[in-house]
């Protein structure tokens, strides 16, 4: 941890390698991301020039083994997510999408030829990935997707049509993992399948979405598919049904559950520093009891979020982490981070809304994090279903 007091002493629970990974990610964030992030956020641009450095740090495909990936254990991976999101949720998003939503499905559902073709270049940051699930009329309920794929002869190519929206990195992606309701030749039962759609395929467009007031240092766009011919070799053979995309989301949500703690740490540390320096009524505002109560709440909530992430990380390491536990982690830590950012913002008074103090940027970002990868409400219902056995999604 930093020089800022944290009474939890989580370092005690980490291996030497995990501590070193954490420190290296912290140093990288401070040295390379912190100096440029506010400017990118204001301009609404993503620091593409840092992609080779993310690769050199092992952030791309970090938890995967082989194919040039770092093979980090789940706790070490989580600690890197903390440090990326401590800087900006958009930076963590880039690495989450590349690692968990684009590389992971190729790794887990792809064949060996697909893995060899895509993963090493993606780990090096030379090939950028995206994940297309959400559509204009299909967000929380991805099973209602309209994007479809048809095969017109046995063993032949597929033809994809449809529209995906809110897709991180789609305008710069070289390979897009697109989920579509698929009719194989001779079948009359559509099944959700994943396709590797490549930049340059005729009929593919990826227009950028402008006007975001949140996650501004992240590129978001659509995927428009107009009769795009995709070879059978680009179909992910290893999965069918909604569990395909939901399995990827479980990987990405795990990383977000850690990353959100980083955003909370950033706003707590900034609020502490500011309130120690700012004087009103003749004394530092950190000396007022109400301010200390806020600092203590921020600090203690971070500790609980970190312990939850750590515990689930060790379960994941043992192959025992369930999707419902990942919902618990994503839901509670993102809520905690968002509430922390609101509290910290108030502690800076007027300065709290200024870019140079960074808290408002985290607050705006966390509104997106609260919504993507399953909204707060959807995760509440997923946990509710686990507790009661009753699914409340349909009313
Ligand atoms: P349901 O009947 O519950 O499940 C269908 C099948 O999927 C399996 N499953 C899961 N598998 C892995 N992980 C999970 N979390 C899973 N949840 C369910 C389930 O076992 C079943 O398998 P099988 O073998 O029986 O067929 O499906 P449902 O239609 O009732 O939906 C459940 C619900 C609402 C929880 C699900 O649809 C959901 O999670 N909705 C939210 C959609 C969402 O999260 N979209 C995110 C889009 S991607 C994104 O936001 C990226 S942001 C990128 C960035 O970081 O920048
Ligand atoms: P809706 O599903 O329409 O939900 C609107 C509101 O209704 C929410 O509050 C929701 O909780 C509530 N609601 C819906 N159903 C229920 C219910 N059954 N019970 C109670 N409340 C309910 N998607 C991708 O596929 N790939 C990406 O890379 C990606 N990146 C994104 C980047 C950004 C910046 C953003 C903002 C979104 C991104 N998304 C991506 C999409 C994201 O996953 C969706 O926005 C999210 O799943 C919610 O879908 P929706 O926006 O259609 O909202």
From TrEMBL:
Database matches in InterPro entries: Acyl-CoA_DH_CS (IPR006089), Acyl-CoA_Oxase/DH_mid-dom (IPR006091), Acyl-CoA_Oxase/DH_mid-dom_sf (IPR046373), AcylCo_DH-like_C (IPR036250), AcylCo_DH/oxidase_C (IPR009075), AcylCoA_DH/ox_N (IPR013786), AcylCoA_DH/ox_N_sf (IPR037069), AcylCoA_DH/oxidase_NM_dom_sf (IPR009100)
Oxidoreductase found in the keyword field: yes
Domain of life: Bacteria
EC number(s) recorded for this UniProt protein: 1.3.8.6
Acyl-CoA dehydrogenase/oxidase N-terminal domain span: 15-126
Residue ranges occupied by any Acyl-CoA oxidase/dehydrogenase middle domain in the UniProt entry: 130-228
Entry-linked Pfam families: Acyl-CoA_dh_1 (PF00441), Acyl-CoA_dh_M (PF02770), Acyl-CoA_dh_N (PF02771)
Entry keyword annotation includes Heme: no
The protein's annotated pathway: Amino-acid metabolism; lysine degradation; Amino-acid metabolism; tryptophan metabolism
Cofactor needs: FAD
Residue ranges constituting the Acyl-CoA dehydrogenase/oxidase C-terminal domain according to the UniProt record: 241-387
Keywords: FAD, Flavoprotein, Oxidoreductase, Transit peptide
Reaction(s) catalysed (UniProt annotation): glutaryl-CoA + oxidized [electron-transfer flavoprotein] + 2 H(+) = (2E)-butenoyl-CoA + reduced [electron-transfer flavoprotein] + CO2
PROSITE patterns in the cross-refs: ACYL_COA_DH_1
Family as reported in the entry's similarity comment: Belongs to the acyl-CoA dehydrogenase family.
PANTHER family: GLUTARYL-COA DEHYDROGENASE, MITOCHONDRIAL (PTHR42807)
Protein name, UniProt field: glutaryl-CoA dehydrogenase (ETF)
Organism: Nannocystis punicea
């Amino acid at each position: 941890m930093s020089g800022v007091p944290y009474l939890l002493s989580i370092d005690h629970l980490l291996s030497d390698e995990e501590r070193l990974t954490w420190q290296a990610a912290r140093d990288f964030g401070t040295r390379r991301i912190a100096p440029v992030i506010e400017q990118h956020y204001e301009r609404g641009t993503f620091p593409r020039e840092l992609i080779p450095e993310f690769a050199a740090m092992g952030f791309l495909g970090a938890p995967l083994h082989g194919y040039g990936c770092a093979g980090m254990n789940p706790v070490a991976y989580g600690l890197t997510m903390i440090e990326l999101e401590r800087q900006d949720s958009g930076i963590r998003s880039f690495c989450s999408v590349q690692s968990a939503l684009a590389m992971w499905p190729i790794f887990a559902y792809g064949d060996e030829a697909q893995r060899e073709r895509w993963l090493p270049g993606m780990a090096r940051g030379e090939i950028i990935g995206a994940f297309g699930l959400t559509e204009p009329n299909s967000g929380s309920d991805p099973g209602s997707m309209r994007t479809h794929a048809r095969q017109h002869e046995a063993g032949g190519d597929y033809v994809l049509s449809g529209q995906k929206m809110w897709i991180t990195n789609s305008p710069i992606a070289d390979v897009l993992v697109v989920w579509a309701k698929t009719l194989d030749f001779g079948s009359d039962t559509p099944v959700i399948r994943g396709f590797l759609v490549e930049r340059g395929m005729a009929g593919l467009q990826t227009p950028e979405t402008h006007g975001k007031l949140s996650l501004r240092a992240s590129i978001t766009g659509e995927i428009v598919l107009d009769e795009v011919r995709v070879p059978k070799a680009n179909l992910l053979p290893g999965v069918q049904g909604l569990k395909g995309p939901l399995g990827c989301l479980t990987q990405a949500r795990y990383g977000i559950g850690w990353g959100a703690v980083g955003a909370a740490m950033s706003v707590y540390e900034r609020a502490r520093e500011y309130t120690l320096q700012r004087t009103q009524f003749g004394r530092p505002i950190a000396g007022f009891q109400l301010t200390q109560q806020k600092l203590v709440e921020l600090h203690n909530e971070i500790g609980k979020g970190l312990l939850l992430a750590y515990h689930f990380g060790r379960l994941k390491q043992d192959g025992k982490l369930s999707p419902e536990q990942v919902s618990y982690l994503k839901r509670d830590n993102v809520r905690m981070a968002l509430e922390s950012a609101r509290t910290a913002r108030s502690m800076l008074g007027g300065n709290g809304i200024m870019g140079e103090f960074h808290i408002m940027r985290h607050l705006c970002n966390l509104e997106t994090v609260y919504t993507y990868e399953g909204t707060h409400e959807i995760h509440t219902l997923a946990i509710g279903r686990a507790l009661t056995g009753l699914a409340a999604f349909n009313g």
